[in-house]
Specification:
Elements: E1 5-10, H1 14-25, E2 31-36, H2 39-47, E3 60-63, H3 72-79, E4 90-94, H4 99-107, E5 112-115, H5 120-137
Parallel strand pairs: 1-2, 1-3, 3-4, 4-5
């Protein structure tokens, strides 16, 4: 059996978070999906603050761009400046297909950019392709 992989989902939309969880449950990789609702909470998770004490370090961060408090753009910019977290791959998973968002995300250190498909079946399929790529194909440091 494949090793358990931890994914930190930074997503403010409850329906999209639920759909993402369902898609990983249907996949082939064992995923521990941790969910937070904005960039501030994502930093609290990474730093082990408050209710996030003793949580596993994520192997991958899935990041929505449009969220309240600290949006994904600001989170990405800041997390990639911190040595302890810089090596964690961040894949943007958003409804935006604006060229400026794509360019800015890669410029700030995103490892990938995925536009959320509209249909549930397409969304599940995209998540499973992401899972295959990051956890079965790509070699990452232990």
């Amino acid at each position: 059996m494949t090793k358990l992989c931890t994914i930190l989902l930074v997503e403010d939309d409850a329906a999209d978070a639920h759909l993402t969880r369902m898609a990983f449950e249907e996949g082939r990789v064992r995923v521990d999906l941790q969910h937070v609702e904005n960039g501030e909470e994502a930093f609290a998770y990474l730093k082990g603050e408050g209710s996030h004490q003793n949580k596993p370090k994520p192997d991958l961060i899935l990041l929505d761009l449009n969220m309240p408090r600290m949006d994904g753009r600001q989170f990405l910019r800041e997390v990639k400046q911190l040595e302890n977290f810089r090596a964690i791959p961040v894949v943007v998973l958003t409804t935006s297909d604006a060229e400026s968002d794509i360019y800015a995300s890669y410029d700030q250190g995103a490892a990938g950019f995925i536009v959320k498909p509209v249909s549930v079946d397409d969304f599940v399929h995209q998540i499973q392709k992401l899972e295959d790529y990051w956890f079965e194909l790509v070699k990452r440091p232990a």
